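Re-run with default settings, no changes from the original entry. Doing this only to confirm the output is reproducible before filing.
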Amino acid sequence: MSRLELFDGKNILVTGASRGLGREVALRYADTGANLVLVGRDEAKLRKVKQEVNIRGHGTIEIQVCNLEKTEDISRMLVDLNKRMTVDILINCAGIFPISTIGDTSEEAYQRCMNINVNAPFLLTKGLVDGMIRNKWGRIVNVASSSAYAGGPKTS
């Protein structure tokens, strides 16, 4: 079995798929025969990425508009997905990187950062892992900034 055949027919969910690294990940998986679930906040951008993936891809592609800042949006999406499919591979690419001093960072900005970068991957993993366990196969990839290892000015 080739590396690409490994993904044929697998259901892969990619967060942050409307731009940046999430978009690139979706485009890379397009050639594998995987079924993709593209997750992001901006429906117009997700539709554009879906078109790009459709041109290259062989599996099914769907978009899920979801604000990862909101637990209720994540819960709603998980209920819908778990009724229809088992996600085999979860790729948490969504993330924000606020640039601000700690003194200038509001509690709201801090909470937004934590919700998107920490809580959303936890909730998605928790909500999808049972299907992976049932199938005795699954992968979870959490993408993070190198700033997690070595911070810099205004990135606390």
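The chain has a mean pLDDT of 92. Residues 100 and 154 are 5 Å apart (CA to CA).
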